[in-house]
Amino acid sequence: MENRVIKIYHGPQHPGITGNMSLELDLLGETIKGARTHVGYLHRGFEKLVERRTIIQAFTIVCRICVPEPDPNEENFARAIETLAGIEISDRAKYIRTMVLEMARVASLLLWIGGQSGSIGLGTVGQWSLFDRDLILDLFEELTGGRVYHMYIYPGGVRRELPDGFLDKLFELLDYLEDRLPLYDKVFFENATFKKRAIGVGVVNRDEALKNGYVGQVLRGCGIKRDTRRDNPYLVYEDLDFEIPTFNGCDVYARAMVRRGEIRESIKILRQIIEKMPKDGKIMQKIPKHRRFKIPKDDTFVSTESARGEYSYYIAGDGSEKIRRMQVKGASLIHGFTLLEKLLIDEELSNVAMIMNSLGICPPEIER
């Protein structure tokens, strides 16, 4: 019988899809011969939405560009506006912002564990990691009033002071999470099935990773030590002691082990923040009122290190209370199209979810 290529759609409701997107796959038997990414219509056009609103109105939009980890969007936006407006925030506000970013990183990495373990049928691990993530979301709710969208890192500082006893609760949670890591190692990261499925799968060429602008765990999983927190420090990262985890292998397993190391390092960073947090200092600088908050005719470019890699904002003003141009650059566009579509060729259908999860793709970041 003549071999026939059939077309199927993987997603958008498939549990192995990272968000509201789908893959159009050409299959010869169980082998993928063609792959095309289709991003969904859940969120789109954020850049233009921002450009049609005042600065304060735009603040509530940017966090939705990546739902699993909205805080780097808030920080990039606030820091870009502060740079253009000449606003300097206090050391205490910087420490609080750094704390929020690292909490968000751990929560996002725990969510990733759930997705990646589920992609190979380890459902129990996903339940554990989502429960542990919820404990971080409990603290976010106490701090910001929201579990997912926080709208807390605001131009001029942060929106509210730390609740009484918050740092003590965070310290206790860090102890708990640190005690949980050996369990994740035993059941997931050192799992023989995961190793057999992940090692040698989704291999990224090291030179192409540098040439094509791949970021985050894709680069660090190739042994390349790149991290915005070290390469171009912001907030208080220069004052903190932490390592940049890397792993040689360039495959799904290497990217998993990098993420495992990043959870450990974020816990280490958060402990230092608790110890060094200044007791005095304004959490919010005085800023102009809503319709009087104008930014000069100038532009700026800022970056943070999100849980998925370098995350950047370009913002330009024209002297009015609105942003003339905003452009967002994250990992998802280059990882979700150029890289994913290439990695899937000649792979088995059963590896699609695992490879996709290893790249850290957030669809609204593509449809921005």
- Binned, the helix content reads 40-55%
Tally the beta strands.
8
Mean pLDDT: 92
Please indicate the percent range of residues in DSSP E strands (runs of 2 or more). Answer: 5-15%
Widest sheet: strand order? Answer: 1-2-3
CATH homologous superfamily identity: Cytochrome-c3 Hydrogenase, chain B
The number of distinct structural domains comes to 1
Order of helix and strand elements from N to C terminus: EEEHHHHHEEHHHHHHEEEHHH
Quaternary structure classification: single chain
CATH-defined fold name: Cytochrome-c3 Hydrogenase, chain B
Shape: globular
Structural class: alpha+beta
Question: Span between N and C termini?
Answer: 46 Å
What is the CA-based Rg, rounded? 21 Å
Note the total helix count. 14
Low-confidence stretches: none
What top-tier CATH class fits best?
Answer: Mainly Alpha
Q: Just name the CATH architecture.
A: Orthogonal Bundle
| Sheet with the most strands, sense and barrel status | 3 strands, antiparallel
